[in-house]
Amino acid sequence: xxxxxxxxxxxxxxxxxxxxxxxxxxxxxxxxxxxxxxxxxxxxxxxxxxxxxxxxxxxxxxxxxxxxxxxxxxxxxxxxxxxxxxxxxxxxxxxxxxxxxxxxxxxxxxxxxxxxxxxxxxxxxxxxxxxxxxxxxxxxxxxxxxxxxxxxxxxxxxxxxxxxxxxxxxxxxxxxxxxxxxxxxxxxxxxxxxxxxxxxxxxxxxxxxxxxxxxxxxxxxxxxxxxxxxxxxxxxxxxxxxxxxxxxxxxxxxxxxxxxxxxxxxxxxxxxxxxxxxxxxxxxxxxxxxxxxxxxxxxxxxxxxxxxxxxxxxxxxxxxxxxxxxxxxxxxxxxxxxxxxxxxxxxxxxxxxxxxxxxxxxxxxxxxxxxxxxxxxxxxxxxxxxxxxxxxxxxxxxxxxxxxxxxxxxxxxxxxxxxxxxxxxxxxxxxxxxxxxxxxxxxxxxxxxxxxxxxxxxxxxxxxxxxxxxxxxxxxxxxxxxxxxxxxxxxxxxxxxxxxxxxx
Amino acid sequence: xxxxxxxxxxxxxxxxxxxxxxxxxxxxxxxxxxxxxxxxxxxxxxxxxxxxxxxxxxxxxxxxxxxxxxxxxxxxxxxxxxxxxxxxxxxxxxxxxxxxxxxxxxxxxxxxxxxxxxxxxxxxxxxxxxxxxxxxxxxxxxxxxxxxxxxxxxxxxxxxxxxxxxxxxxxxxxxxxxxxxxxxxxxxxxxxxxxxxxxxxxxxxxxxxxxxxxxxxxxxxxxxxxxxxxxxxxxxxxxxxxxxxxxxxxxxxxxx
Lengths: 504, 256
Hints:
The complex is a heterodimer.
Chain A: H1 2-18, H2 42-67, E1 89-92, H3 96-108, E2 117-121, E3 137-138, H4 145-159, H5 161-165, E4 182-186, H6 191-204, E5 208-211, H7 213-219, E6 230-234, E7 239-240, H8 243-256, E8 260-263, E9 265-270, E10 286-290, E11 297-299, E12 304-307, H9 313-318, E13 337-348, E14 359-361, E15 367-371, E16 376-380, H10 398-412, E17 420-432, E18 439-442, E19 449-453, H11 459-475, H12 490-493
Chain B: H1 2-26, H2 36-46, H3 48-69, H4 74-80, H5 82-92, E1 96-99, E2 105-107, E3 126-130, E4 152-154, H6 163-168, E5 178-180, H7 189-192, E6 203-205, H8 215-225, E7 230-232, H9 241-255
């Protein structure tokens, strides 16, 4: 096309050269070829010809310079999406916990550029990630002191989120936090547990109040208090928010501080080559990051690997042989984290509870919360151990709603007898099969792998505080703000579970 | 023969001129140095990391000053008691208050000057507090937490009042009757849900809150949530102009 135009211009130029009179030419000997533009004056044509010539000369000069030796151009293109060859800390997993750890590592480094952090996430669309599929609630009503402190610290973080995660010249972070509180309902058998938990929570500084059935009826007239003996209601720092906003806020701030992001999957953790096969201490030196949909991979040399892969963390430790050793050795104990599928149903009920409806959790395990202002609610329940759904996909079973969720919901809130399921989704819990609480710390065999996984549904609400704790562990060597040594891997070796004594 | 030669010569001259001009554009012009402000801006753009650092220091400084103003008045509480400490806090933030049983208001003027007569009323609870257009925030509210008989709280036009402060108002749930949070830019619907704890509220003013996206619906839900409360919500545009504007845009796009 450009060659044709150049030829046309040359022909018209020669036409001009032939005629010396500088008069207007409305036709030329090559009529149809020059109809593409108006030939008002000869000088205009000549300028265009020279401009085009100019551009072509420049391109020719550049190509010549590249082809000559001494230039950096090469016909073999390197994939720009590969991770760097060396990093100090590789965080496997780009969910909210992974990015929280990356942010806090950069926040706590003493020198600018002191720690080179790489976050590896295998799915940039986050289609199966637990973070974005979560119901997004945060509560302080736990029985373990550490969990309460983690929640309080995370709520503190979210209160001042623009101070922590605000980037210059960008929009402020709006988490859309609904300050609605959690409401736990207890039957007679579990009321004493609720009272004990209440005293622990108040001791730790959480603002919770106990309500009797009459007070409950006064506060929430749409509630059916049948079978409810005691209720625990969070007054402050509890509610729900948008997990995608939190994830993106962490990511944006971490990237602005220099964290490198890579889209790929860690398919191998190579121990250093100069070691024997029968090892007691394995050091993961080179996680192998494989590009999506290709066989291309890049081994990343690093000092520390952080396992924040959530539901898929068990697979990562399996790559080092953890769990496939002899039965009575430490290497024989696998990381007890596996994905568990949980369904969340979106229902629409026009006469349901209004703006004051909290995140209600019944003693049968059924929960619901308001979503938006249009009479939509989110409901679900944790299935029994024996009826765990299949985790190979994220398909939703609507029969489960009809059998397990709706009867309890309709019993608890009579207005929910007339509801309609508008949609549903499923997500994975990074379920800790041992005691359903997080595992934070170094693995005893793998000297440089830090675990931050297994939170079984509480990862999102604890993510800012856990991120800070892991960053303290890595950079300061010990926990500084909240002591989470009770959540280390040791309890799995000594078989001492840290169980949450809750009513559900 | 000479005519085409002369025109060819002219073409070559022009191309040479063009090349020369283009080369000049690429190299730095040595004709005259640009003015001072242009040079300064060029200098700053080449050091944008430092400019970013300075700007973030500045915002950090402003935040620190705000937190200092809203700090916990521990010493005042220890020496003068809870109520006088709250009173002193309100006056130093340029607010106003009225003691329970008294009828006169204690105010601080624009420059921050106030009379010290309030020290005469020891151990008297505060009944009405007016913190309109002050910089009170969540941290500052801890200075007022001891006032369990607070009846009126005016937070009109406070730039730092957000949802978390509204959630903390549950400490006044037994006594608060009148709350004014109009014109506060940082309040959103999630914070208004926190007002469910104030069951004794009789008057609520939520006018002109820019953070609420669908004010009509939110006001209706608020009225359902607080049935004994009289809600004032002026300054909202409930008309359907937005919907009409969208329809016009769609029509124009279809025409194109």
